[in-house]
TrEMBL record:
A Pfam family the protein falls into: TPR_1
PROSITE patterns (alphabetical): TPR (PS50005), TPR_REGION (PS50293)
Gene3D superfamilies, sorted: Tetratricopeptide repeat domain (1.25.40.10)
Each TPR repeat, start to end: 35-68, 35-68, 72-105, 72-105, 120-153
Protein's gene: ycf3
Protein name: Photosystem I assembly protein Ycf3
Entry function: Seems to be required for the assembly of the photosystem I complex.
Entry keyword set: Chloroplast, Membrane, Photosynthesis, Plastid, Repeat, Thylakoid, TPR repeat
Length: 174
């Protein structure tokens, strides 16, 4: 049974019904419709913490989806799962692939920065100041890119940039 048929709450059921109606009336190919179904099922599984099932659905969607914009969100969600599982190198790989297809994904830039910041903290705790500083600088670079795209988001990152002297003052931040 498809995950979309297993949804238990009202909002999920409503979304599923609306998505099915839209899918039927939109002039899209069979592959695009299948890709969307896999993507929707992947999001549903991911929201329930069923990461293995979500990954299976996302990989199926990737195999069918041709639109670069849509593929970028699939890749981004795969990155989210790997990040949640602590597989930061794999997460970075998928976030970067998503950005190659859609450079306007501030959430991917933010998540890359979060990973580099985490690595900077770990390096600092291991008494490795050079690596720590390099990771913090990488985090700063990605946060600044994210803030340029979404200036009202990532307030904590903006504060961290200012507090650590990594804030690049151009008028886009104010």
């Amino acid at each position: 049974m498809a995950r979309s048929q297993k949804n238990d709450n009202f909002i999920d059921k409503t979304f599923t019904i609306l998505a099915d109606i839209i899918l039927k009336v939109l002039p899209t190919s069979k592959e695009e419709k299948q890709a969307f179904c896999y993507y929707r099922d992947g999001m549903s599984a991911q929201s329930e913490g069923e990461y293995a099932e979500a990954l299976e659905n996302y990989y199926e969607a990737l195999g069918l989806e041709e639109d670069p914009y849509d593929r970028s969100y699939i890749l981004y969600n795969i990155g989210l799962i790997y990040s949640s599982n602590g597989e930061h190198i794999k997460a970075l790989e998928y976030y970067h692939k998503a950005l190659e297809l859609n450079s306007k994904l501030p959430q991917a830039l933010n998540n890359i920065a979060v990973i580099y910041h985490y690595q900077g903290i770990k390096a600092s705790e291991s008494n490795n100041p050079t690596t720590s500083n390099n990771m913090f600088n990488k985090a700063a670079n990605y946060w600044q890119q994210a803030i340029i795209l979404a200036p009202n988001n990532y307030i904590e990152a903006q504060n961290w940039l200012k507090m650590t002297g990594r804030f690049v003052n151009d008028n886009r931040f104010e």
